[in-house]
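Quarterly update, task 2.4: adenosine-3'-5'-diphosphate-bound model.
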Amino acid sequence: LCWIMVIGSEGLEILKKRLPDAILIGAKKSGTRALLTFISIHPNVSAANPEIHFFDKYYHLGIDWYRSQMPFATQNQIVIEKTPKYLVDPKVAQRVYNMNKNVKLIVILRNPISRAISEFVQTQWKQKRNIFDVEEQARRFNRMLYQNRRGNLTIRKNWSVIRNGIYVKHVKNWLKYFPLESFIFINGDNLVRNPHQEMKKLQEFLAIKPIITERNFVMTTQKRGFPCIRLKPGSDRIKCLNDQKGRPHPKINPSVFQDLDQFYKPFNKEFFELIDQEPFW
Ligand code: A3P
């Protein structure tokens, strides 16, 4: 089934499954779900809810399979899918280019240190470790983080938790196929503090009416410290992310934090030069 007919606000409408116009490619643990949830309330957006993993995992199933995974959309809607793995998998950029060289690419990035801790916490949850013992978590993080190189402790940059945050490396690969104008870089830290600012940027980039504004966001006790979105300004209907988003983080000790800061500093600098923007962090 690839199209349906419905009676909508504009009369009879045909909804079709189409390949995406925009893809949210990452970075993992930077607020990708929040960004997709927020943009999904826009009437001119139709977003696939699950992560499709077509270009990294299911490519062999073919483009018709990919299309079949898309949500139904009217002609006036932009179709979006998100799979945060795409940013860091070196095969993906060329495959996306082969599908549509004009596709819009959405990247949301968070300070790589908190991103790394967030990903580490997620792996601990998946392994069903006792994640509420934050001190044990911090010790475990340190054990994974360092390697002994001829008597020196250095950061294990091949640990995916660390490597995924070397944004310059991953974005450079994408830039082999797409010009800088194909991308928007959303600040994941600011999406928590000032979500409307990031949503304004995103709506502009997607060339849709900027109807998601400050009035859509609300802090509830249900989701302390993280904004939830009102489906319409003034409406009581509110959507928050589930408990797997906004997990408690272990407290990393200051010297480890400093090592990570030193480690990421040159990569961050190179990254913001590459995309020609003021540093977010
Ligand atoms: P933590 O759970 O480590 O705090 P992703 O969706 O890409 O996996 O990113 C998860 C992160 O999104 C969370 O990491 C959280 O910090 C962040 N986030 C941003 N806005 C959020 C929101 N409104 N509600 C919940 N989490 C949000």
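Highlight for this quarter: The first strand starts at residue 3 and ends at 8.
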